[in-house]
Amino acid sequence: MQLRWHTDEPAFGDLLLLDRDPADDLIDLRSVRLHRLGRVRAQMADHGVDACLLFDPVNIRYTTDSRNMQVFTARNPARYLFVPLDGPVILYEFTGCEHLSAGLETIDDIRPAITASFVAAGNGISGRERLWAREMAAVVRQHCGADATVGIERVNAGAAAALAGEGFRIVDAQQPVERARAVKSDEELKCIRSSLRATERAVARLRDALTPGLTEQQLWSVLHQAIIAQGGDYVETRLLNSGERTNPWFQETSHRVIEPNELVALDTDVVGCFGYYADFSRTFHAGPDEPTPHQRELYAVAHEQIHHNMSVIEPGLTFREYSERAWDIPQEYEANRYYLSAHGVGMTGEYPYLYHRRDYAHAGYDGVLEPNMTICVESFIGHEAGGEGVKLEQHCLVTDTGLEVLSQFPFEPSLLPGTSPSRADLRVVAPAPRAPGPTDSAAHVVTVDLREARGRERDVRVAVASGATAIELVVTGADWSDQQASKIALRRMADPARDERVPVTVTVDVTSLDDVALVVVGHLARQLRLTAVRLVGAADDHARALIREGADSQVEVILSG
């Protein structure tokens, strides 16, 4: 089987014409470096850390932009960085590699490293660890004092114990460094966009090479070739799989041959241009025939999950609030769910982790989403009984007002709800609003008790996929005093229609609603961008006026008696 490395008419032609965006010479890398070092020192001060000794190659690169054998040094303590709160930053470099970091304004001195590992020292490892600790202790005392608090990470236990024996208070450096990395500067965001554009070009080549008869490994190699050719570093995982190997997730790329009409799922996990992670997931259809209804259903559910969860992210939202508002996974897909709902991303997967609602109590922790955090929103949908699965993920930016999607690679058109284009037609065009309007008598009606709305969004999705021109949700069981719960339930039902620009009317019996509840109904209609609210029961002009008070002029309020 021949791989199409350089095809003249790629399916993703427009993407292949994209260069890295912005151009490298428009990024102020000196500003990037100095900002990151400043972030680390600011967080050290906030956490009471006088000095950090960093071994993690990603942390070393973040702090200084110095890179050398990142995979090798992730498992060998052969280079490390001394970062005092005040004073010189000293890189202890692998033998013979001092020239690699010469001229970086973030590094004041480069010295030879002492490799305190069993491989390097053999049975003399304990002595080597003590030697390393004495050298580091002298530097810490010189620049930070004899009673300094020292943050360390990724060092063997004997070395940490030996350094503690020198009289210092030893703490974990992960917290201040991860908090530093969580919020990006504007110049960093240029680096991230550049890495994403390069990775999208690589995935476009992979998608174009996808042909039944290739092995998973042959197809996956296309991604590597294109990433390295564009100056990326490496791919951190082996997550491309096909057919029933797509479910459960986390099955590594193998020699399995891709069969006709199977799903092929990919998570990029690319450490790309400038060392920044490009992390998005897509699921493709191998062809040559059209996808099955079941494949489209899996894809529609995953598509719904990430779009719902992206819609709830905003600055100031706590991690707990996110978990409470996040999409409920249908029961048949819960067992094989992705282990996170969303996560931070920068130079790799980072702080914070945002958990599914059902996992928050035993795994979650609280915090606050801040502007300029970059977040990946995840979905994996695969039935617990087996069969194929769908992996989707978007790489996003928390802005001052909401969320910006940074990853631009299109979803698979043939798998999107209500579409059936050929494999050659891979353009994604936002659908125009459908007519007729919300009062049309042919609107598809879904009656739902909001206390039991979980899973019922599939009724709406099926109706939209079948060509419904309008959706009317007749809601009962709403506790309008719990505005957040009602909003989550309504959003769950309305999103599948709104994503396809199908107008949504909510019908509410106002017989037992007080004035406050009526205003709440209006507020929710505005927040969820509903097209209309239809009032039944004891509906009158007073009720309509109160709902209009909470809504806006874009929401039609209809009296039906």
Explain what you see.
α2 (29-46) packs across α8 and α17 packs across α18 (541-550). A hairpin with a 5-residue loop joins β10 and β11 (277-278). The chain has helices at 13-16, 29-46, 57-64, 70-75, 118-121, 125-144, 157-164, 174-182, 186-209, 216-229, 293-312, 319-325, 331-334, 357-363, 457-465, 483-498, 515-527, 541-550; strands at residues 51-54, 80-84, 90-93, 109-112, 149-152, 169-172, 234-235, 240-242, 263-267, 270-271, 277-278, 281-285, 342-345, 349-354, 374-382, 389-398, 403-405, 444-449, 471-476, 504-509, 532-536, 556-559. It is α/β, with parallel strands linked by helices and 561 residues long. It contains 18 helices and 22 strands. The chain has three domains: 29-179, Creatine Amidinohydrolase, Chain A, domain 1, CATH 3.40.350; 186-415, Creatine Amidinohydrolase (Alpha-Beta Complex); 444-559, TIM Barrel. The termini are far apart. 36% of the residues lie in helices and 18% in strands.
